[in-house]
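Tutorial, part two.
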Amino acid sequence: MAPEIPISSTASARQHGGAHPQADERMVSRAARLRSLLLAIQSGPVDAARLAFTALTMHDIELSHHPVINRVGAALQSSQLLESWRIAQELRSQFPLAFAPSPAITVRAEARGFIGGLMGRRFDLSA
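Running the prediction step on this input gives:
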């Protein structure tokens, strides 16, 4: 008698905790790119916001066909930062991770000074 081979579907794999790590990574990277677009729109230069928009649409083909994202891009092409920010607010319900506050970045305090001279000595300017 042949041994029984269990057959599982993706639905049963999800029930047993077998999530798709690639889908989670894609969702996190999508949220990070959307967050960078939102920060670029808020912080100022139109060119930076356009660059963030291009990075978002080039790396995520699904979002390049999203109607709200396309309206944000059209506003950026017209150099209308305030309008693009207003339109981007419509994405809040669909992509809540992008609007969540970003994790705090810790910066390690280093000695003030510079390396210079012929021997590469460190000059301490902390005094």
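The radius of gyration is 23 Å. In part three we will examine how such features are distributed along the chain.
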